[in-house]
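Bench notes, afternoon.
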Amino acid sequence: MLISKMRSRECREMLERLGFGRLACASNNRPYVVPIYFSYDADRLYCFSTLGRKIEWMRENPLVCVEVDEIRGHDDWASVVVLGQYVEIPNTREYTKSREQIRSLLKKRVLWWQSGYTASQIRRKPKPPIPVFYSIKIEEMSGLRGTADTLEKGSRQGTPSV
């Protein structure tokens, strides 16, 4: 298998096309990784959630990471990693326009609201869902792609001894 770096344009196209990944955040030196839906626009990922551990931890430590991958086979895959900062869009009158713009971007994705709403319904102590719109301001982005190596395929006789 050949592994190559993806160009910035390829990373952006993948983020725009997929809109689903895993968000990593941390609190008190403990990591937390959860699936998220997002919409990509320029230098940000736009997201929706309800109040819970993920939002509490990102409020405490806004440095986050998002990983997005597309796997078609063991030697046909791509992965993009975004490092960035959590930016919450307050639920106030002055941010109404920003929240509506994010909602319109997210509406392009089917069931964009479901993971945030569902999480609020399965917690031990059910609470009314408190919607939270936020963005991840992209500070750094990189991607890798795995592709079949035709030379490797032709020379395989069996399993290599390790």
